Amino acid sequence: MEQRLVDEDLARVMEPVATANGLSNRYYTDRQCFEAEKERVFFDNWAAIGFAKDVPENGDAMPLTFLGQPLVVIRGRDGKLRVFQNICRHRGMILVREPGRIRGAIRCPYHSWCYDLDGALKATPHVGGPGHNTHAAIDRDALGLIEVRSHVWRDVVFVNISGDAPPFEEAHEKMLARWREFDRPLLHSGADSSFKLEVATNWKLAVENYCESYHLPWVHPGLNSYSRLEDHYHIEEPGAFSGQGTLVYRQLRGDENETFADAPGLGEKWDTAAEYIALYPNVLFGVHRDHSFAIILEPRDNASTVEHVEIYYHDESSTGPERAALRAKNTAQWRVVFEEDIFVVEGMQEGRNAVHFDGGRFSPAMDSPTHMFHHWIATQLAR
Amino acid sequence: MPLPGPAQPLDRLNGAVIAAHEAGDGMRLAGLYGEAADRFAEDGDIASACFFYTQAYIFALEQGAPEAERYAAVLRRHGRL
């Protein structure tokens, strides 16, 4: 009976936008739904867990916990970034507790089994008895760290924990093609272009809000002066991403009318266009001629999400000290915009406690990118 | 095989080893264990020496110290690695 009800809920979500309901309350409040989502939405797809800039040098390691999974991101001696389950193959002990540089090997703090940066098991001290460091039963070649499939795009580290998703380049072929013009190194200037917001909402509501421009005149009145609703367009790629674009992007200017340098080689479209895309499931990207950003949504629980915001530039002249004031202004401006969204995503989460709420309805004209996301979630959960 | 008993060479080094453990000073630990191992080896106590060479090897390996290879070579020579 319970399963049938869930299926009926999801079927309503998958109707055309004009007749569909949104995901029902349980997908925002129920523990079992959160657990199902963890497996089917996050582990079975390419989920964003962190930023490659945080492991800049060979040997850098960054432990993190994503949806309860202990992971460690390591840049190897070969410069390649890898993600492993952050556990020793011996007794499952957590290996790396703090971010930092690994000089030689990763030593488990329990019995000191040691792993190379590429995950290979290098040493098993006393495993055959005191002073005997091998044992016939312990095949070191078969006991390396458990690697999780990973891929870096636009500095975001994605993982496919189940190992079953199509390769990233295949799964997100259309996304990669859409922004190929921006395919160049992203430059990050450090703490002045980085912040996080802890929000009392379900992660999906942050995606839903990001996807549509409908709310802009009401929630972001500051954008209204030059960025009117009719200057926006929908971006929709079923099963992969959705969002919005603007046709009237204006560069930020400093006190002396200075601007950030453009990414070289962009087409004319980008003189005034900017795009904001939610790449399913949990990363929100923005691109402009002179800067980009990425927001990773870290679901802590049904009603708790951390938004990790990183702003990038396209030219070294933008990350030097001479542009520090303009960067500060840019970061502050985006912080205002993202903070303006907090009351709505928290308000919608609170609203999911209303027992008679039916998941809501969508404006067929304005909400189709949001419905597309709901449809994708429902498709994942109904599999 | 029993663990080495109250080891005379280590008695002298014991305080230094504990301090290095507390400080998380892997390079120092590698050196101290290596010193203890060499003393046992000089005395012909291969079992104890290999225990301490193992300790030295692991900390040197963790630190990426070149001494790791010397300790590894000794352990290999005794069929312990």
Characterise this structure.
The complex is a heterodimer of chains A (383) and B (81). Chain A has 383 residues and is of the alpha+beta class. Chain A has 2 domains: 48-168, 3-layer Sandwich (Rieske Iron-sulfur Protein), CATH 2.102.10.10; 174-382, Naphthalene 1,2-dioxygenase Alpha Subunit, Chain A, domain 1. Chain A has 10 helices and 17 strands. Chain A has helices at 2-13, 26-29, 31-43, 168-171, 173-178, 203-211, 216-219, 324-340, 342-351, 368-382; strands at residues 47-51, 60-66, 69-75, 81-85, 100-101, 106-107, 114-115, 121-123, 147-153, 156-160, 194-199, 232-237, 241-246, 274-279, 283-287, 291-301, 304-313. In chain A, the strands form 3 sheets. Chain A has a 7-stranded antiparallel sheet. In chain A, strands 11-17-16-15-14-13-12 form a 7-stranded antiparallel sheet. In chain A, α1 (2-13) runs antiparallel to α10 and α6 packs antiparallel against α10. The radius of gyration of chain A is 23 Å and the shape is globular. The model of chain A has no long low-confidence stretch (mean pLDDT 95). By secondary structure, chain B is mainly α. Chain B has one domain (8-77). Helix content of chain B is 77%, strand content 0%. Chain B contains 4 helices and no strands. Chain B has helices at residues 8-23, 26-42, 46-63, 67-77. In chain B, α1 (8-23) packs antiparallel against α2, α2 (26-42) runs antiparallel to α3 (46-63) and α3 (46-63) runs antiparallel to α4 (67-77). Chain B is flat.
Helix content of chain A: 10-25%
Low-confidence stretches of chain B: none
Q: Which architecture name of the largest domain in chain A does CATH use? A: Alpha-Beta Complex
Amino-to-carboxy terminus distance of chain B: 17 Å
**CATH topology group of the largest domain in chain A:** Naphthalene 1,2-dioxygenase Alpha Subunit, Chain A, domain 1
Report the CATH superfamily of the largest domain in chain A. Answer: Naphthalene 1,2-dioxygenase Alpha Subunit, Chain A, domain 1
Determine the structural class of chain A based on helices, strands and strand pairing.
alpha+beta
**In the residues of chain A, how many domains can be counted?**
2
Residue fraction in strands of chain A: 15-25%
> Which class of the largest domain in chain A in CATH terms?
Alpha Beta
Q: Quickly count the helices of chain B.
A: 4
Largest beta sheet of chain B, briefly?
none
Secondary-structure element order of chain B, N to C: HHHH
Spell the H/E element sequence of chain A.
Answer: HHHEEEEEEEEEEHHEHHEEEEEEHHH
User: What is the number of helical segments of chain A per DSSP (H or I, 4+ residues)?
Assistant: 10
